[in-house]
Amino acid sequence: MASEIIEKLQWRYATKKFDANKKLTNEKLSVLKEAFNLTATSYGLQPLKMVIVSEAKMKEALVPLTMDQAQVKDCSNVLVLCIEAAMTSEYIKKYFNKVEDLRKTPREILAPFESFLTTSFSEKTEEEISNWMSKQAYLAMGNLLTVCALENIDACPIEGFVPAKYDDYLGLKKLGLKSVLVLAVGHRAEDDLFADMKKVRRGIDQVVIEM
Ligand SMILES: Cc1cc2nc3c(=O)[nH]c(=O)nc-3n(C[C@H](O)[C@H](O)[C@H](O)COP(=O)(O)O)c2cc1C
Question: What distance in angstroms lies between residue 194's CA and the mean position of ligand 1's atoms?
Answer without folding.
Answer: 12
